[in-house]
Amino acid sequence: MKKEKIVLAYSGGLDTSVAIKWLADKYNAEIVTLIADVGQGGDLEKVRAKALKVGAVKSILADVKEEFASQYILPALKANAVYEGSYFLATALSRPLIAKVLVEVAHQENATAIAHGCTGKGNDQVRFEVSVRALDPSLKIIAPAREWDFTRSSAIEYAKTHGIPLDGIVAKKTYSIDQNLWGRSIECGVLEDAWIEPPDDVYEMTTSPLAASNTPAYVTIDFEKGKPVAINGEAMDFLELINKLNAIAGANGVGRVDHVENRLVGIKSREIYESPAAAVLFDAHNALESLVLTRDTSHFKKLIEQKYSEMVYFGLWYSPLREAIDAFVTSTQKMVTGQVRMKLYKGSCTLAGRKSQFSLYDNKLATYEAGDTFNHKAAEGFIQLWGLGVQTYGTMLRKTAAEKNCTCKGKKQKCSVTD
Ligand code: ARG
Question: What CATH code is assigned to 184-293+335-366?
């Protein structure tokens, strides 16, 4: 009988390497591995070859960096998606894309199942599985790490017994790390104590602010309809721009975040993030929006942004609501064209200037100097009507208190009669 095929999301680490052998044995299946290159760095060709050594029948390396930047990161940037005000969602945004490629490979290979290496405690299992279900509910989903009961040392033993190369894998792992173009997420080890300051070895994308240059670096970012298109006047595609900005901002110690976050599965976890480019682009994008969006659009968009970031975090990328919000956000970006200047200095990222041909900031209306065109007289009538509701309410309170003979005659804000 022909063996079933399983497509496994492969990282080259201990768990997914053990999973190749474990899945093949347990399910009597052929394993096709997929490494999605989302900008995690490292020698991915070597990782691809390792899967074959461990026993995969086919090992695929798919470069999806461009798609990740343009179809996942860019909409999130336009939507100012930041979970709990701290996390730029680097890991969360990559999962639906990896799930999509898993499904595509499963179709190409006539596979019946997909598998991933996530544990039962995290958000990523949810993101992978909800995405796969949305894209092809007929595919089976297997999560070996939820099924087996390996400890780290018994997994190493299993690897040794089955000739799985350990390539420097050690019994005590310092941190759990996920990395891509948009940032790096680091947890576990000493970081599990939320009182402990992150040791220096946690960071890779950012120089310590203490060691960073004593001279500020200025970067000017050009936006077109919400999309960053140039740095310091040099036009480049979005992927290249992210890489370049990661280097510049990272060298100035920008983009470090220490956050205790609320996971979807109900637990709080402490995570360190590094996202230099994201930190700069979010501030810059927000600064430009504040210049060109009307107050109503801006305030309404803030409500939507919170929802959007939750949907990304909670694994609901492939949902009609996310698509509908994207349509709204795209419409708000029509005028988000202009330039923003940011100052990067020893870990801080501050706004140094912004301008746009669509600016709604009208100096003649705003100025307190000569040349003011604002109609001061009109303010009087405006205030009368704007405050009419609360004025009427206040009059009624005073009248009621007086009628009830309250000693304060309703003059106190907290009157015993009306409270
Ligand atoms: N907490 C982040 C999220 O749920 C990152 C998860 C992966 N982190 C890690 N260090 N392996 O999106």
Answer: 3.90.1260.10
